Amino acid sequence: MTFTLRVRPIVLKPSTVFLGERPSDVGYWGFVRSGSDYEGELAAIVKDLSGIVGDLSKEGYSISLQPVLEVSSIDDFMNHAGELRDAHLAVLLPIAPVALYQYPERSVLVSLLSVVDYVVVFDRFSEHIYAGTLFAPPLHKYLSSQSPELARRVVLAEGDLGLVKSVMRVVYALEKLKNTTVIMVGEPNYDFGGWVTLAKGVGLFGFRVRHITYSRFAEDFENRLKNPKYIDEAKGIANDYVTKGQAEANIRVKYELPEPDEDRRIRAGVYYLTLRDYLNEAGSDWVTVNCLSANTLGKVKATPCMAFSIMNDSGLVATCEADPTAMITHYLMRWIANRPVAFYDPTVNIGEGKLILAHCTSPTRMTGYDKAPFRYIATTHHESNTSVAPKVLYEPGTVTIAGLSHDLSKLLIIKGEATGPTYLRICRNQIEVKVKDATGALENWQGFHWVMAYGDYVKELELLAKLTGIQAIKVE
Question: Among 31-45, 91-105, 163-177, whose mean pLDDT is lowest?
Fold first, then answer.
């Protein structure tokens, strides 16, 4: 599934009085004074943006920096409105005191919102140039009071290239979500919002859903289970996964982590192949299964724990339990962090100032697709003792945790320090995270499942909340 974020720089071009060979000696407060000033600023801005796009491209994002559009009148904007609709994000660069910039009712800033989804305003601070920083804050403030649904789609990044980069990450994730289809096996889980939350998610974020019934999945699973070609492939995939998951034999014995037998391996492999075929048929990168329902677990005697671990490690998004709330956070976090993200049942221990996050599947490449995976022990699903599941031996590091409310109106954001795995009698994958305000995490609990990424993405999640009109609740 190919997606490229298209970024269009829009430059407010000064009038001819500021584009002469000699610097203007009137009316130049904080703005360019000559043609060479203007060309120098334009070149510097393009270099800055190209650098950001280059950095993100090296991280694995596909981003196209489109040609600069110079605007000196509303006619310029209108003449190019059609081609601007091809962009996902406009970067507005107010180099000049263009009158159309200051007033919302006839502002280039606001008119851009009629053709692109998001706008970031960026000004460079150089020796004598302050440019649009004089006008952007009051304009945005006024717009916030009159049309907050428009203002939330604008980010002011005055002199902050790091913020511009963060905006690109978040808009990439939002636009990627908008252009994808989730394969949902079974009903959206009614314990976590059900059809109501799914409908709200589709309405707010624009993704599509391809539904696969329980009976269709069970039939497809059984047909593959009877096919020698699939059996051989399933064995190969599962045996390779189990062979690689042999870390710390003493832990397997001490904590009663059984090694899956051949039948469990075959069923885990067939589960993977069935879901893989669904994704390939739909050209999708996202799947979720109501996997613990009696209609699925009872019929196929397996879970997708191994399949989801492999898929998340490969760059796909595989979300547990058809949770219509957390699956959205899972997809967005994968693309904001651009690395595998894990999905958990959270618990909060306010006495010890920590969270314990647990689930029976987890990626292993959580510090990056190109980084060494965490070691793991291949075992079975905890509650049912079926299939194949990892016990990942997590490493210490800074992590960011996010949880949406079931009505999608609030986003809990937590930054903490992972200390490593625990060995409780709960889901196989367990990670302890130290936080400064465990009480705040408990009192501001949202949804049911939370997702976690290695790294600090608090700024990006706050931007995500702003751009979508969701209330951010930050806890450390």
Answer: 91-105
